[in-house]
User: Fold this.
Amino acid sequence: MNQKKQGFKEKQSENGRFKQEKKAAIKKGKCKCRAFGECGGCQMLDLPYTDQLLLKEKTVKKLLKPYVKLEGIIGMSQPEHYRNKVNAAFTHDRQGRALSGVYKEGTHYIIPIEECLLESQKADEIIGSVRQLLPSFKIKTYDEDTGYGLLRHVMVRVGHITGQIMVVLVLSSPVMPSKNNFVKALLKLHPDITTIVVNVNDRKTSMVLGDKEQVIYGKGYIEDVLCGLTFKISPRSFYQVNHVQTEKLYGKAIEYAGLTGNEMVLDAYCGIGTIGMVAAKAAKQVVGVELNRDAVRDAVVNARKNGIKNIDFYQKDAGDFMRQMADQGTEVDTVFMDPPRSGSDEVFLDSLVALRPKRVVYVSCNAETLARDLGYLTKHGYRAVKGVCVDMFPFTVHVETVALLSLISVLPKLVVTMYVEADCIYLQK
Ligand code: SAH
Assistant:
């Protein structure tokens, strides 16, 4: 047999083996969840938890190797049902029966799911009850193709410590028939629900939430306690989904910052102000910047609620805000940055370099964009000192990483800027 033929045969049997292994893995995963291999949510469900941790650590280590050494990975002792926020997409079968679940990865096809190993069991129960109540209230689920029907999604958020529960009904129109009776019926089944909000999303979009909201029961938000502080969380504000691991993540971020009480701190991408408020206890002054208006409003209320006076919040693009700070000559000692999965943009990184904080604590939910941004910052006057992974998303391929960067140069600002612009080798060392 010539080499070409031999290679082809080997490839075929390799493919065959791969297919068989995949089948076996799916079978293994399916013992835990019927939707394994289809929904795409828990890519690692077939692996023991310790193997998941090893795999994540290895992957991040490899990505960050050119810049920083990892301290390790912090896992969970009970890695199931950690998600305190659950989004269920609604549809119906051919007989018109309501179904709810998640989108099959990369599609708009909804895979029906009644319980999920990742999600809060309480949230799943409530979503199940909504599904059951729909026919008696003649509420139709939304059809993406025809645009007909009312209920698009249900989002449930559970306060891990407070137990407060928010249900958000995402509708295609603001008119909900027998709204009051529906609320009564749902509360009868789940008296622990503390607030119900109608969110109107009338656009053809893959975004879950629309811009309009109406509170139909309770306060319209929940509160939760994180790192000993109380936070108000509105439907459209970001709040970390894994409470247990968030406390460990923030603990590491604060440890890396090494605050002494004299620092001017910037919390960039601050959400409802969580990291900044935890840091405020150990800093002189904190400023938080965030794009989402609702989150900033929550942050302001949260600072007041916790009696934290040395913190201010601004609703702005984080990069533009930092550029302004740098132009005005504001001195910032420490920047916490916690960008979305896409990482930071050039405007942000450029402004960060111009601002020249002594320390940057980078909290990242995507090690690929973290590696890219570390590449930029280590070429522009910073050294990556240490890093650690925190497993915020067991059973998935995702993981959080905290990295500490410190400013290499102690030269005056003007000189450093010149050197940085000239891409000076001295600063790149
Ligand atoms: N640090 C917070 C939030 C992190 S999530 C926490 O731990 O809870 C990232 C946040 O960045 C979101 O709240 C999002 O609204 C915000 N965001 C996204 N792009 C932004 C930008 N360009 N400028 C400022 N904030 C932004």
In short: Residues 411-429 have pLDDT under 50 and may be disordered. The two ends are 54 Å apart (CA to CA). Residues 238-240, 269-271, 274-275, 289-292, 295, 317-318, 338, 340 surround S-adenosyl-L-homocysteine (CB under 6 Å).
